[in-house]
Amino acid sequence: MIKKTVESAINEQIKREEFSSRLYLSMAIWCESNGYPGAAAFLYRQADEERMHQLKLVHYVNDRGGKAALMALTSPESHFDNLSHVFKQVMEHEQYITASINDLYEVTLNEKDYTTGSFLQWYINEQIEEESTMATILDKINLVGTEKGGMFHLDKELGAMAAAAPAPSATA
Ligand code: OFO
Fold first, then answer.
1. How many structural domains are present in the chain?
2. Residue 137 is assigned to a structural domain of this protein
3. Is 114 among the domain residues?
4. Is residue 171 part of a domain?
5. Are 104 and 120 in contact (CB under 8 A)?
6. How remote is the CA of residue 142 from the centroid of ligand 1, in Å?
7. Distance 110 CA to ligand 1 centre (A)
8. What is the C-alpha separation between 169 and 172, in angstroms, rounded?
9. Residue 79 pLDDT exceeds 70
10. Which domain holds residue 49?
11. Residue 34: inside a domain, yes or no?
């Protein structure tokens, strides 16, 4: 049976993952309505991934005899200056999520809940991958600058990345 302290810390993370999904959905909407279909596809996929991250935590809490809870969320930002602004915000948000997962992991260590600590390793590794993907995209955006042809190709590349990514699964 999961301890109450761990259960409520995971429920806070469930809220953050749900917010991540809505934030990336909002960014995808902005991209789609501003001429970046590839970036939109990439961010729609990211939104699905975050929803899967949320669901995986929901199942875990319930499987351990706790109760997953949904909390009120604020509206995500919906206006962005340009594509560079979008992906800088994604990176900042992912860094915030990494820090929150580290804090959650610390709660499990303090509570000697090594089972949950082991479960969280998946999230720790996932954050390494996500921050690295965003850093690569930001490098490319910086390289292209405001050059329209370069931005067109970058958008296509983001679309191809979205098409090649496996479908998110909460049981993976
Ligand atoms: Fe990349 O945020 Fe979920 O875990």
1. 1
2. yes
3. yes
4. no
5. yes
6. 24
7. 23
8. 5
9. yes
10. 4-72+95-164
11. yes
Distance 22 CA to ligand 1 centre (A): 12
Exposed/middle/buried for residue 27 (C-beta within 10 Å: 0-12, 13-18, 19+)? buried
| Backbone region of residue 35 per phi and psi (left: phi > 0; alpha: psi in -120 to 50; beta: other values) | left
The predicted-structure confidence for 158-169, as pLDDT tens digits, reads as follows: 999 999 988 887
> Is 50 a pocket residue for ligand 1 (Cβ < 6 Å)?
yes
Long-range contacts of 22-31 (CB under 8 A, 24+ apart): 22/47, 22/73, 22/76, 23/76, 23/77, 23/89, 23/93, 24/50, 24/90, 25/76, 26/76, 26/77, 26/78, 27/80, 27/86, 27/89, 27/90, 29/78, 30/78, 30/79, 30/80, 30/86, 31/83, 31/86
Contacts of 121 (CB under 8 A, 6+ apart): none
For residue range 9-61, list pLDDT tens digits in order.
Answer: 999 999 999 999 999 999 999 999 999 999 999 999 999 999 999 999 999 99
**93 Cβ closer than 6 Å to some ligand 1 atom:** no
Q: Does the global pTM surpass 0.70?
A: yes
Q: Residue 10 belongs to a domain with what CATH number?
A: 1.20.1260.10
> What's the 34 CA to ligand 1 centre distance in angstroms?
25
51 lines ligand 1 (CB under 6 A): no
